[in-house]
Design brief:
alpha/beta; TIM Barrel; globular; two-stranded antiparallel sheet; 10 strands; 11 helices; eight-stranded parallel barrel; about 325 residues
């Protein structure tokens, strides 16, 4: 898989990244460690060398699973992890990074990201200057190679960028969730900041595998996802019906079509999770689909059946 440069850093990433929120188990149901390890390994063998995790995914469990799957090929993979909103004071950032290094069994992290802005989830408000000072120090030490932010608005991104080089933004972004295009994308394009999109399949909605009457386990985070509720969900089903003939034309799945559309957008790369090996391998194959300009526009218009009815709040869940 041909790699892309992460922002202006020396890090090269694959356009499809392996997402490992589910490997942490917390807020997911029916996840087994052995399956997660196999899925991560299968992604690597299929050409996905960039793995995204976070300290908060199962309190380090996801990071440990990533290490178990890939420690023997560490020199051929890129690790992206995140520090949570409750650890943004200087000393806490340093401690969190050291914990992640230990969990990942490595002495450097390729991309270290602020997971949520300070103040979210009732966390203490910490000036961005203080957090960035810690991140810049970690970068000078060689413990991290690039700095990124996640769930930041354009204004928050601009503030952070005054304190040091930001090489990536990780927003929720998919054919069915596109607020970032109006807000931060123009700034990212202008400043050569890579977008690493999470939930590029709208938490599985874009796979087409959930029928009109599907109900999630209350323990599943998707039970609170706005896209899986009421009229949004019905509109998504209509859009999926219109996407099916395009996928059929390319002899690919709906998921592969959605990933292919996303990585064709300006600066955009896609973090796709997988519960098992076959999903991981299928995600990797999305890079082989070549969509024409007309097809990209057609898919764009179909996506708007859903997105035109959403508000500007970029958070996907009613938490």
């Amino acid at each position: 898989m041909e790699k892309r440069r992460l922002g202006t850093s020396d890090v090269q990433i694959t356009p499809i990244l392996m997402g490992t929120w589910q490997a942490g188990k917390k807020m997911w149901v029916g996840i087994e460690d052995a399956d997660s390890i196999k899925a991560i390994r299968a992604a690597f063998e299929a050409g996905i060398t960039t793995i995204d995790t976070a300290e908060v995914y199962g309190e380090g469990h996801s990071e440990q699973i990533v290490a178990e799957a890939l420690s023997d090929v560490r020199d051929r993979v890129e690790y992206a992890t995140k520090v949570f909103a409750n650890h943004l004071k200087y000393d806490l950032v340093i401690e969190a990074c050291d914990r992640s290094l230990k969990n990942l069994k490595t002495d450097y992290i390729d991309l270290y990201q602020i997971h949520w802005p300070s103040g979210t989830f009732n966390s203490e408000n910490v000036p961005i200057e203080e957090t960035m000072k810690a991140l810049n120090h970690l970068k000078e030490q060689g413990k991290i190679r690039a700095i990124g932010v996640s769930n930041f608005s354009r204004a928050q991104l601009e503030e952070a960028a005054k304190c040091g080089r930001i090489d990536s933004l990780q927003p929720p972004y998919s054919l069915f969730w596109r607020q970032v295009e109006k807000d931060a994308v123009p700034y990212c394009v202008e400043n050569n900041i890579s977008i690493v999109a999470y939930s590029p399949l709208a938490q599985g909605l874009l796979t087409g595998k959930f029928g009109a009457d599907h109900k999630f386990d209350p323990q599943d985070n998707r039970a609170k996802n706005k896209l899986f509720q009421g009229e949004n969900y019905q509109r998504a089903q209509q859009a999926l019906d219109k996407l099916r003939p395009i996928a059929h034309r390319h002899n690919c799945s709906l998921a592969q079509l959605a990933l292919s559309w996303l990585i064709a957008q300006p600066q955009a790369n896609a973090i796709a999770g997988a519960r098992n090996s076959s999903q991981a391998i299928a995600n990797a194959k999305a890079v082989d689909i070549k969509l024409s300009v007309d097809e990209l526009q057609e898919i764009d218009a179909i996506g708007r059946i859903v997105t035109d009815h959403l508000d500007d709040n970029s958070v996907m869940w009613n938490w």
